[in-house]
Amino acid sequence: MDLTSTEVRPVFTAEAIAARVSELAAAIRRDSGNEEVFFLCILKGAFMFMADLSRAIDRHARCEFIGISSYGKEKSSSGEVRLTKDLDSSIEGANVLVVEDIVDTGLTLSYLLANLESRGAASVRLAALLDKFERREREVQIDYLGFKIPDEFVVGYGLDFAERYRELPYIGVLRPSVYSRV
Ligand code: IMP
User: Is 104 a catalytic residue?
Assistant: First the structure.
């Protein structure tokens, strides 16, 4: 099925994403020395980014997952952050690299980063694929950033709208006609 023309306007092709992910992996490798990389994927949106980043890293990597939800079926954050899946193991003393799909208002990450520090992580760095900087309400330091984007709702490559479009290999802007129907 071709969703491209009717529902989603492509912005970053699969090739453009892959090229940027390789650059981010190289920067992470440089900064990590010979240390194992401790990836912490924020579910669900970052699962594809994390899969590609961990394959590109060419270092021993540990892959952990945490589930957080702040949207429900809405198009903008409610500001209420809910833990939907907790970590399986302790992060005490670990140098954690949080992997996030998109930083929008920053509410989700400011909650999570404070939460991780309170659990005794030695350091917490952040890799985010997209930065919707115009909408920021809480300051968040992004150590490894894929792309800055304007204030438009994007889907694909793990990102959803009401649980749809995650499977697309590219990232695109969801046409307003789609979400005005919901
Ligand atoms: P924040 O708390 O407002 O920074 O929202 C962060 C979360 O909202 C991200 O992890 C995404 O899951 C979701 N989000 C924000 N903008 C978009 C978008 O354009 N498309 C899909 N999900 C988004």
Answer: yes
Task: State whether the beta carbon of 53 lies less than 6 angstroms from ligand 1.
Answer: no
pLDDT tens digit string along 107-141?
999 989 988 989 999 999 999 999 999 999 999 99
**Phi, psi at residue 50, to the nearest 5°?**
-65, -45
Q: Among 76, 82, 102, 109, which is best to mutate for testing ligand 1, by the most ligand atoms less than 8 A from CB?
A: 102
Indicate which atom in ligand 1 lies nearest the CA of residue 153: 19
Contacts for 139-143: CB closer than 8 Å, 24+ residues apart: 139/106, 139/110, 140/103, 140/106, 140/109, 140/110, 140/113, 142/103
Q: Which fold has domain 13-151?
A: Rossmann fold (3.40.50)
